[in-house]
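Students often ask why inverse folding is considered easier than folding. One informal answer: many sequences map to the same fold, so there is more than one right answer. In these notes we will look at a single instance of the problem. The structure comes first.
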């Protein structure tokens, strides 16, 4: 066991410790510059997805908004509540600034990886689609790289479907026990039943559930934050100044100063929004959209919601509270966030926060399951395998919920996620010229006056694309079957 844990510790040191964060930052800056700061240029368009409907009328199709909410549900979790608190405790208020910075850069990275997932997606023949990093490895780099796709799929399943789902189950049961006194066994049984109902319904049911619970989750948390801000409105300028000053070493409130703020902000920000890690493209590929860039823009918005909105909410709750004492590490994580909120709006708020945490955990469980389902399809096409996976997920969630020490067993999740990220970043860099061609196609249609650009796969004959995955192109094509009508 010592040898195994030592091996995964080495993998984590080589990925998260040495290679990954520099790669995410450097690649993110490179992509941002080469795309002409696409996350800023298309920022207005991001908000359109909030009101988008199913564009085909097919009841099985996943809309852009539903794909957005599933990915937000996966991204938003403990990192947005406990992770931000840890970042501030260890890095000071300046860590928040660097979380913002890495999120803005990550928005461009997320746009590119999600665009590639859409570009190389495959139709399931029933109005739904599938794809992701494994898809753009196989169809983008070629079948000779399928071994790399299989490695990616195995790591994805072990890290997210099993490891992180056990952790989320444990978080769920722990929050219920601490706030309501419900025994872990009963909350574990309840969570397992609900999880089974959702996962056996597939991506269609997952999307429908996310469409309901994610807005509730976000509105509750943002609403609590607004209460805190309004009651401390005169202190907001001082908090913003402390964030900026500490970020650049003008004020030092923790040991390490600028370096601690930078390191904690980058690491916690990357853990939170997952931009470049290759997880959310699996969900991005399921959406029925008119152009790959459209879903890339949508997933870029997901990073904005996760870090710029939700993480900022947590930061203001903590920094406006007398509970937080710079340089003091006695209280951190979820406890710091909970006590900060209670000190501002009263003890009743802890129940609302508990409810939000439960939704965070549950939305992450169904998201992690879908990543496992996507990975399984890369490894085997046997129909019985999917039922085995669904049953295994229900059991893992229950075990994670009922065993207080269960999360320590899943020591392999973070190292494997590091492997996923290194593989994904390398692949999207190799396919970046293709993504730029798709981006140029989108921009040229906008310049020509097409309000809602439509992707025509026949315009890219050198790429291995599934033409049946783009029904919009067939409906808006001109009489000659080529030129697209203005839509």
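Output (designed amino acids):
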């Amino acid at each position: 066991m010592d040898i195994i844990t030592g091996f995964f510790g080495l993998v984590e040191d080589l990925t998260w410790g040495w290679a990954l964060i520099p790669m995410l930052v450097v690649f993110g800056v490179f992509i941002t510059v080469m795309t002409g700061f696409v996350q800023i240029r298309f920022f207005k368009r991001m908000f359109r997805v909030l009101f988008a409907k199913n564009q085909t009328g097919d009841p099985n199709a996943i809309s852009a908004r539903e794909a957005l909410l599933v990915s937000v549900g996966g991204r938003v979790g403990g990192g947005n509540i406990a992770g931000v608190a840890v970042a501030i405790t260890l890095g000071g208020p300046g860590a928040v600034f660097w979380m913002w910075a890495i999120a803005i850069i990550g928005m461009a990275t997320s746009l590119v990886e999600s665009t590639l997932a859409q570009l190389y997606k495959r139709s399931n023949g029933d109005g739904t689609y599938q794809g992701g990093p494994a898809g753009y490895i196989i169809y983008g780099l070629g079948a000779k790289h399928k071994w790399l796709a299989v490695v990616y799929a195995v790591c994805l399943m072990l890290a997210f479907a099993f490891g992180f789902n056990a952790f989320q189950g444990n978080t769920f049961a722990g929050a219920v026990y601490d706030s309501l006194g419900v025994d872990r066994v009963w909350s574990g049984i309840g969570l397992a039943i609900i999880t089974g109902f959702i996962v056996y319904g597939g991506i269609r049911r997952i999307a429908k559930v996310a469409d309901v619970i994610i807005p509730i989750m976000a509105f509750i948390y943002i609403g609590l934050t607004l209460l805190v801000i309004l009651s401390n409105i005169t202190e907001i300028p001082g908090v913003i100044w402390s964030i900026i000053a500490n970020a650049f070493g003008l004020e030092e409130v923790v040991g390490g100063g600028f370096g601690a703020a930078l390191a904690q902000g980058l690491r916690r920000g990357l853990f939170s929004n997952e931009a470049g890690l290759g997880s959310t493209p699996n969900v991005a590929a399921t959406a029925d959209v008119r152009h790959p860039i459209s879903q890339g823009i949508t997933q870029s918005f997901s990073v904005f919601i996760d870090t710029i909105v939700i993480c900022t909410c947590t930061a203001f709750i903590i920094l406006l509270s007398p509970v937080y004492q710079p340089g003091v590490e006695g209280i951190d994580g979820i406890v710091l966030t909970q006590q900060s909120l209670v000190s501002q709006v009263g003890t009743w708020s802890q129940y609302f926060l508990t409810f939000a945490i439960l939704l965070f955990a549950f939305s992450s469980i169904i998201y992690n399951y879908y990543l496992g389902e996507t990975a399984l399809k890369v490894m085997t096409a046997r129909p019985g395998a999917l039922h085995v996976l669904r049953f295994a997920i229900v059991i893992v969630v229950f075990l994670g919920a009922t065993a207080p020490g269960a999360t320590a067993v899943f020591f392999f999740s973070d190292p494997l996620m590091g492997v996923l990220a290194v593989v994904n970043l390398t692949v999207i860099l190799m396919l970046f010229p293709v993504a730029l061609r798709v981006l140029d196609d989108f921009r040229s249609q906008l310049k020509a006056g097409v309000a809602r650009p439509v992707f025509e796969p026949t315009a890219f004959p050198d790429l291995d694309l599934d033409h049946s995955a783009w029904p919009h192109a067939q409906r808006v094509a001109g009489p000659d079957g080529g030129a697209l009508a203005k839509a």
